[in-house]
Amino acid sequence: MSISTDKKIGTVLLCSGALGLALSIIYGSTALVFIGLTFSFWGFLFLLVLPGKYVKSEVMDYMSSSSLYAVDQIIANLRLQGKAIYIPVPREAYLPYYIGVKNEFVYIPKRNVKIETAIGQAFMKNLKGLRLAPPGLSLANVMEKKSKLNFHDLDLSYLAEVLPSLITQEVDLAENFTISLEGNEVSAEIRKPTCEDLCKEASKMQHICPHIGCPLTSSIACILTRVANKPVIIERCSLKDDTITTFFRIL
Q1: Helix 196-203 crosses helix 215-228 at what angle (to 10 degrees)?
Q2: In terms of domains, do 140 and 204 share one?
Q3: Mean pLDDT, to the nearest integer, of 93-117?
Q4: How remote is the C-alpha of 163 from its chain's centroid?
Q5: Are 109 and 129 in contact (CB under 8 A)?
Q6: Are 118 and 109 in contact (CB under 8 A)?
Q7: For residue 41, what are the domain limits?
Q8: Which one of 138, 205, 213, 217 is CB 3.0 to 4.6 Å from 72, fit for a cystine?
């Protein structure tokens, strides 16, 4: 019997997560802790959510919230005070050393500094802050795969056309989704998200919401970073009744 693609992907992700957690213990790396937790979560997700089988949303929420709590605690322990920035990895630029990520990442400076200074710090070998994989990175990758588009090749106006149906129909993450563009300001409204309970939990975490964002808002930040090929920050995010409203700024 052939092994399904979901099982193969799940096994690879789960093994990668276990390796990341093991290396985090060996090297004492907080970034590897989060990467390991993220890969482990998505590995379990691919192994459990097979064709025709579903896991209750509250189960997935609990699985995700544990990873978010871990990251929130890491940021608190490191006493990071700077504004989180989603930063694209230069696709053709030469980097003299491996920075540990291949896609867009989140950088949190130790202190509040100018945006230009923070972006420069993000690629330093000896970091003055924390560089980590966004909680919504895997979800952004799934949406890109489902859309059969290369987000790097899109412009923001076209993204605004395709993203609502992608979120509400292709991946079924919310009942309704709207996005508005005005210069470098982007606002998104997510109504009745399937991960509403997770968003409520994330809203209680001081360092997650609204700075890094829950997996859903984080995935949108990742996509905006990928399309614009520019750094993005989450200005503010609020959950009222059954609607998440998030404001992003493209730098």
Answers
A1: 90
A2: yes
A3: 80
A4: 16
A5: yes
A6: yes
A7: 1-55
A8: 205
Among candidates 187, 173, 180, 191, which has minimal Cα distance to 237?
187
Please tell me whether residues 122 and 77 are part of one structural domain. Answer: yes
How far apart are the C-alpha atoms of 140 and 183, rounded to whole Å?
23
**Residue 234 pLDDT > 70, yes or no?**
yes
Helix axes 57-78, 196-203, angle to 10 degrees: 20
CB atoms under 10 Å from CB of 99, counted, come to 16
pLDDT score, position 201: 78
What pTM does this model have?
0.75
Q: How many whole angstroms separate alpha carbon 246 and alpha carbon 16?
A: 31
Same domain, 17 and 119: no
**142 sits in which H/E element:** helix 137-147
192's tokens: 């009745």
Domain shared by 122 and 4, yes or no:
no
Alpha-carbon distance 68 to 124, whole Å?
A: 25
Nearest to 12 by CA among 38, 40, 37, 32: 40
pLDDT at 165: 93
In tens, the pLDDT along 144-165 reads 988 899 999 999 999 999 999 9
pLDDT score for 96: 59
